[in-house]
Amino acid sequence: MPTSLSVAATPEPSRPTTPRFKDVVLDVLRRARSEKDSEAHQIFRDAAGNKPKNAIAMPQTVNPDEETVPGIQHPGSTGVIYCSDRAIANGFSYANAHAWANLGQGAPEVGPIPEAFERPTTISLPEDSLEYAPTTGVKALREAVANLYNDTYRQGKESQYTYENVCIVPGGRAGLSRLGAVIGDVYTSYQIPDYTAYDQMLSAFRRLVPVPTALEHENQYKLDLKSIKKDIETQSLAVILASNPRNPTGQVIKGDELKELVALSRDGTTVILDEFYSWYIYPGDDEEFGKSVSSAEYVEDVNEDAAIIVDGLTKNWRLPGWRVCWVIGPRNLITALSQSGSFLDGGANHPMQLAAIPMLNPETVKAEKIALQKHFKMKRDHILKRLKHMGLPVDLPPNSTFYIWLNLESLPEPINNGLTFFEELLKEQTIVIPGIFFDINPAHRRNLFKSPCHHFVRLSFGPPLKDLDMGLDAIERVLRKAKKEGMSSFGHSYKKSVDGSFVRPEDLVTHV
């Protein structure tokens, strides 16, 4: 993809600097071909839990943050948490959040949007809601979830979901954790790139044996069903874990492809699909607004097919703070999830579960889908248009979710990799998520420069339009600066901690 940026001229940094610092910076810029040469990558590796598990030509040092409590091993933070911590080190706080553009957030805007149902401002607190809820959830909410899926995806089918096929959980991660706790010693397939929390899940539950499949950008990151079937036969895959629609690439499988994937659940393989973006579908034809995607449509027998759905209020209903989600699957799975929930999380918030019940009315949901899809399609088209104007056209526009998987390869070094681009945007009070966090890598062995996600960032168009424009303005400033001043001011001078300290040149030299 062509770029309008040129790096033919490399002027001196405008701020005063010592010769030693200048020499180090220019050396790094010339030779940043691996982690050890990049300041942004060193900051990442210094964060607790992010050391590689084998030598990759980097000195193996002890991080005191990882060694202070005997017997504790840091799992490494999810991408959003790491990026939030780095933003805080650069001056971000929740008190001044309005001054920042958070294009990294994995949540939709929660305020009113045109034609959507009114945002709840109060909830009832009946006396029985002050008690613990069952670990499987309030029965009435479980019934409402089952009814919604039957009405939306299973009309006319003999096998119907009941409350016994639904487990209410306190958030999507809790649902995944409950599932991870009950999966036995089996090979579990996952794809690259995919949702960042899968990395921690696959690392934490040691009985799972993770088996990766790298999806190809050239193939629009589609699941290769032929390859999956071969892996089932040759490697005895027992579990397939994937998001659909896909985070972060914004692609979706549906129709015959999704039907074929679900069919694997009838042949000895459990299929777990994270369907949190099932409403975020952007049709080309206005008459298609209001349609959603779910594997529930292709399940034949709800108690025999080993097809598991994870979803909830977080994305589709735009209520991430409620932490009310669900897992749908065979009846005997729900019993197992109740048991794992009793020691993992104790169950979802009781009053919020009761308040959620009327929101699952099928007629309310149909109207909400249309409002959501129209609004988010408008934002998607807006951000794509602005990126194209900047010389960053998106070669794989999202047809679902609220994410753009932005390829930076056309930019000059060092801002052509996600971690450095992210650090430069922090200077502009803007947050994005580097692509390496979606390279699910449970053993943390891969050199980040070798990651297939290294040259990408994920941009979210979940925030309100004014916040999107703030972030896009920041990206434009970075690109304008690169074109006008050259690259000597990029790739260094990053704040290391909240106290305002910077990476010292002498520390950088030890790694070069």
UniProtKB/TrEMBL annotation:
Aminotransferase class I/classII large domain location: 101-475
Keyword ATP-binding: no
Any Pfam family: Aminotran_1_2
Superkingdom of the organism of origin: Eukaryota
A GO BP entry: amino acid metabolic process
Annotated segments matching region Disordered: 1-20, 35-58
Gene3D superfamilies reported in the protein's UniProt record: Type I PLP-dependent aspartate aminotransferase-like (Major domain)
Keyword annotations of the record: Aminotransferase, Pyridoxal phosphate, Transferase
Cofactor(s) listed in the protein's UniProt record: pyridoxal 5'-phosphate
Biased composition (Basic and acidic residues): 35-44
CDD domains for this protein: AAT_like
InterPro entries from the UniProt entry: Aminotransferase_I/II_large (IPR004839), AspAT/PAT-like (IPR050596), PyrdxlP-dep_Trfase (IPR015424), PyrdxlP-dep_Trfase_major (IPR015421)
GO MF, one annotated term: pyridoxal phosphate binding
Similarity comment: Belongs to the class-I pyridoxal-phosphate-dependent aminotransferase family.
Protein's recorded name: PLP-dependent transferase
